[in-house]
Design goal:
Elements lengths: L17 E3 L5 E2 L16 E3 L15 E7 L7 E4 L2 E4 L4 H18 L3 E7 L4 H13 L2 E7 L7 E7 L3 E10 L7 E9 L4 E9 L7 H23 L7 E6 L7 H8 L3 E2 H5 L13 E2 L5 E2 L2 E6 L8 H19 L4 H8 L10 H10 L11 H11 L9 H9 L24 E12 L19 E12 L1
Parallel strand pairs: 4-7, 12-13
Antiparallel strand pairs: 1-3, 2-5, 4-19, 5-6, 7-9, 8-9, 10-11, 11-12, 13-17, 14-17, 15-16, 18-19
Length: 464
C-alpha cells in the first residue's frame, strides 16, 4: 500500500488497459518457469490501474521512469527446438519493443531512462526516435564501448525541460560501461537539475564488487567535475539506472554515504533494512532482487569529501571479505600485521592482506595509486604504520556512519552565492508489474527481465 497523504501532485484514477502480449518463445535457461516449448497462446498483459505520471495535475511536478528493456541480443530463447537470441527473429523483438513503447507512452513520464537499448539496430532505433519524438521528447543515445551492441537512451519531454547540456561518460573498463549526464532547466519552476542514466557491471564474482564500486565512484567524480568546470552551485541530482546490486550491497551503501536516497523507498516509507519488500529484476540465474533505482540527491545533502568516502567504501568491502571468513576485529588486525615484528600493521602487510582478499594483484583490482591512497587515509598520524586505534577508527569502523556524520548541515559550506537552488521532494513511486512491489515476480510478464520504475518529484522549497 502506498501512503495516503499526497501533495498537489495527487493522482486520479485512470481505467486499466489491456493489450496483446504475444510471447511465442521461451527462456533458454528456464528462469521464467515455463517447461513446454513452442508457441504460446495469445494472452493479455495487465497495465497499472493508473499511471502515476499521466495523472499529475500540478505543472510544477514532473516524473521519471527507469527501465532496463532487455536488449534482443541478450534475450535467450528456444524456438523450434533450437536455441537462439531474440535478435535473430525480427517479428518477436519488434513486437516486444512496440509494446514497451506503448507502455512508456501511456505512462508519459517527463524523463525516460532506458538501459540495454539496442543501439546497433537501425530499424529499432528509428522506431524509438519516431514514436518518442512524435510524443514530444528530446532523445539522447549512447552505445557501450567496444561495439557491444546495446547502450543507453535518455529522453526528456520538451514541455517540462529545456536541455542546457548533454555529456557522455565512457568508463572504458571491464564491462564497457557508459553513463549519460543531462543538465536541464525545469521549465515550470525555472530552476536546474542534473539527470544521470547508467548501467553498472553485473557482479559475476567477488572481484567485480570492487569494479562496480569504482564505476559509481567515477560517475560521482564526473558529476563533481562537471559542477566545478561550469562554476555551478550544487544542483539536485536524479541518478537512474540498473545498478546490478541490491539494498544489501556496497554500491547502495556508498551512494547512501554520499547523501543519495532511494526515491522508491522514500515514497513508501521503507528503511534501508527493507530490502525484501520489493524486487525489480529476475536475473539469468533465476534470482529475484531489487536492482533498479532512481536515486535523489538534494543540494543540502551534498557531502564534503568524495575521496574519503570512497576509501570508507573500500574498507567496508575489506571488512565484508574478512567477516565472510569468520574473522573478528582482532583476527583481522592480526591478519593485516602478519609480516610485522611489532604490534602494528606495515604497508607491506597491508598490501599482502589485500592481495589474499583478491582486492589487488589482478587487472581489475585496486591500482598502486589507489592502494597507497587507502594507506594514507588509514595512517592518521602519518608515521608509516597502523596501530590498534587507527585500525579501529579508519579500517574497521569507518564504514557507513553516514546518516548524520557525513551530512553537511551548514549551507554556507555548499553554496557560494545567492543563486536560488531547487530542492525536490518525492511524491509517489510505483513499479510495474505491480506484483514486484510485494517482492514477487509474475510468471505472465514478458516485456523484460526488469520491472519499470516510475517516480514523481515535486519542488518542495528553494534554498539560498
Amino acid at each position: 500500500m502506498r501512503h495516503k497523504h499526497r501533495t498537489s501532485c495527487e493522482k486520479k484514477h485512470i481505467p486499466s488497459y489491456t493489450f496483446p502480449d504475444v510471447h511465442p518463445l521461451h527462456w533458454l535457461d528456464g528462469t521464467m518457469g515455463r517447461q513446454n516449448r513452442g508457441i504460446s497462446k495469445r494472452r493479455s498483459s495487465r497495465i497499472d490501474s493508473y499511471q502515476i505520471s499521466s495523472s499529475i495535475t500540478d505543472p510544477s511536478c514532473f516524473s521519471c521512469t527507469t527501465f532496463n528493456i532487455l536488449a534482443p541480443i541478450y534475450k535467450r530463447l528456444i524456438h523450434e527446438d533450437r536455441t537462439c537470441r531474440e535478435s535473430e527473429i525480427k517479428a518477436y523483438w519488434l513486437d516486444r519493443n512496440e509494446r514497451i513503447l506503448d507502455l512508456l507512452l501511456r505512462e508519459r513520464s517527463s524523463i525516460i531512462c532506458l538501459q540495454e537499448f539496442w543501439v546497433n539496430n537501425e530499424e529499432l532505433v528509428n522506431m524509438y526516435d519516431t514514436r518518442l519524438g512524435d510524443a514530444g521528447y528530446t532523445i539522447f543515445k549512447l552505445p557501450r564501448t567496444n561495439n557491444r551492441g546495446d547502450g543507453l537512451l535518455t529522453a526528456v519531454h520538451k514541455d517540462h525541460f529545456h536541455v542546457i547540456n548533454h555529456k557522455e561518460f565512457l568508463f572504458n573498463d571491464f564491462g564497457d560501461r557508459v553513463a549519460q549526464l543531462l543538465h536541464v532547466e525545469v521549465k515550470n519552476v525555472g530552476r536546474e537539475i542534473l539527470i544521470v542514466n547508467t548501467h553498472l557491471l553485473f557482479p559475476h564474482d567477488s572481484s567485480m564488487s570492487l569494479e562496480r564500486l569504482r564505476q559509481v565512484y567515477k560517475i560521482l567524480q564526473f558529476v563533481d567535475a562537471y559542477l566545478k568546470e561550469n562554476n555551478l552551485n550544487p544542483l539536485p541530482i536524479i541518478l537512474c539506472g540498473d545498478w546490478n546490486g541490491s539494498k544489501r550491497g556496497h554500491v547502495y551503501k556508498f551512494l547512501r554515504s554520499q547523501g543519495f536516497v532511494s526515491s522508491y523507498d522514500i515514497a513508501h516509507h521503507y528503511s534501508d533494512a527493507d530490502a525484501h519488500k520489493w524486487v525489480s529484476h529476475r536475473n539469468h540465474r533465476g534470482n529475484i532482487c531489487g536492482v533498479d533505482f532512481i536515486w535523489l540527491l538534494n543540494p543540502d545533502k551534498y557531502q564534503k569529501i568524495l575521496r574519503t568516502t570512497w576509501s570508507d567504501a573500500v574498507f567496508g568491502l575489506f571488512k565484508y571479505q574478512v567477516s565472510r571468513a569468520s574473522l573478528t576485529r582482532e583476527d583481522a588486525f592480526e591478519f593485516l600485521k602478519a609480516v610485522s615484528n611489532g604490534d602494528y600493521i606495515t604497508y607491506s602487510g597491508f598490501c599482502e592482506a589485500l592481495r589474499q582478499l583478491n582486492l589487488i594483484g589482478h587487472v581489475y583490482g585496486l591500482t598502486d595509486e589507489e592502494t597507497k591512497d587507502l594507506w594514507v587515509q588509514a595512517d592518521i598520524d602519518g608515521n608509516g604504520v597502523l596501530d590498534h586505534k587507527e585500525f579501529q577508527e579508519r579500517v574497521w569502523n569507518s564504514m557507513w556512519n553516514y546518516q548524520v556524520e557525513n551530512t553537511i548541515n551548514d549551507q554556507d559550506e555548499i553554496l557560494n552565492g545567492t543563486h536560488l537552488s531547487l530542492e525536490l521532494g518525492v511524491t509517489d513511486a510505483a513499479l510495474f508489474p505491480s506484483e514486484t512491489e510485494n517482492g514477487m515476480w509474475p510468471e505472465d510478464y514478458s516485456l523484460s527481465d526488469h520491472a519499470r520504475l516510475t517516480v514523481v518529484f515535486s519542488p518542495i522549497r528553494l534554498i539560498s
